[in-house]
Amino acid sequence: MNEIARNTMCRYADGVATSVGMMIVFAALSANVMAQSVNRSSGMAATATASANLPSTSAPATASVLAIDTANSTIGELQQLMQSQAISELRTTYNGNYGSSLLFKADSRTYYVALFQQKNFWRVVKTSSEVQAEQTYKNFVGQTEKLAEVDIRRIKLEADKQYTEQLISTQETRLLALQNDLAVQRQQEQTVSVQQDQARQQAQVLNNKQQSARNQLMVLRNRIRALETQQTIVDGSSIISDKNDKKKQ
Questions:
Q1: Measuring CA to CA, how many Å separate 152 from each of 105, 144, 156?
Q2: So what's the pLDDT on residue 59?
């Protein structure tokens, strides 16, 4: 009986120890997961506050492109230096959407040369040689010039297109104004032509009436003259008759 009890207690103690061990393992795993989550959150916050003068270190992930972890890379190293403001920007050249930067870490006298496109780092070269850094920077600048030719041409063509569309709009407005002017002119000419016809007709009517009035006036004058002539003859005859009568007396 004592042996059985002793074996039972041993098995119980082993079970308790196993449970405690598993709890410790689970606790360690949970702490590790929480630490990774905190580290990722800190990294995201630091990335959000990076210098506005330099591009970000990674492009936004898309459905067709797998996310790439840049933490353990020269790009990630440069990003950390930018976040901690432990690096100085010596010069930057932009060509279209492309650019190149030469940066310097003073305490370690290390140069970083970056090539980026649309604010996203493309290539980063780390070197302690000033000559190599300058040469790499010049090469990157040359690459940005070649890469930007298409973008610059697109920008210029877009500007030309907008300018041409503006000219077309201006010319269309001018054309419409001229068409309206011509329509008004033709309408006015038609109105004037109608008015001229009416005036000519009225003038003809007035001329006919004037001619008729003149003819009537001439007839009246002729009748008046005739009557005046007759009256003169009658008056003359009366005067002669009166004289003869007086002589007879």
A1: 33, 11, 6
A2: 42
